[in-house]
Amino acid sequence: MTSSASAVPAPSSREAGRGGRPRAAKLVRMTPLTPAIALMLVFLAGPIIYCLYAAFTNMALTGTGANEVKFVGLENFRKAFGSGAFTNAIWLTLVFTLISAIIGQNTLGLGLALLMRRSTKIVRNFVGTAVIGAWVLPEVVAAYLLSAFFNEEGTLNVMLHKVGLPGQDWLYAAPIIAVSLANIWRGTAFSMLVYSAALSEVPKEIEESAEMDGAAGIRRLLFVTLPMISRAVMTNLMLITLQTLSVFGLIYAMTRGGPGTKSQTLPLYMYEQAFSFSQIGYGTAIALVMLAIGAVFSLIYLRGLNSEAA
Questions:
Q1: pTM for the whole thing?
Q2: pLDDT digits over 298-308, tens only?
Q3: Which of 40, 91, 138, 195 is deepest in the core (most CB within 10 A)?
Q4: Are 182 and 254 in contact (CB under 8 A)?
């Protein structure tokens, strides 16, 4: 009786070579990418994996967690969601993002881009320089300027007194509104540049045809122009939302999260817990919550982009 193994002819060395060559060629082509892949693993994936590990431990800069790091499971997350200060920080972060990015920077950036499109070159250069100048200022410098504008003896109150209105210390009375307006002032340039580039791609013939058909002014903007730049709108919203969620230096330099916790957004709360109170594991868990909030916003905007592409 002849075995099945002996019945199947063995592959020739030539056939084996045909199957191995493409794989070997792929490995050779991948070789130049090896340093880049190694760098990405070390500097991108490495810190993320370490943060995931730290968020589930009692890691600390001082005390028991500094001497012996232990796995604590979901304890850091249970502690966070049971804390009133944490939920207050989430609420203030969403308010700050809604006012300063989604409404403020997005709307003002679109408005400036539309106005500059129809203005003279001199006006475009002047407005563009002023707006971009605020954008390129370091956060600390911008925070100092805006603090001088909003404080009790600042420029805003001087202007209000001149028209007979009472002034107040805006950084104390309405700190989250003050830092939101400061972020609008500093970050509108990015939205303006995105919308200026998008509007330059809209054919004038289409807008002129719409105007001849009776769609002028706000109707042309809503039903012709905005649909044609909808992908730029979603992209801009995603980028400024993610950037605003992580704003730290501007708020810290203006109010330090106060008075009390009235302007303490998640980045400031995370910094306080991790470095002022030395709770690295707890602070890292808060950072993961921030990452999850950013991921939710990103999924919403990406869904909008995909629906436009479909």
A1: 0.84
A2: 999 988 888 76
A3: 195
A4: yes
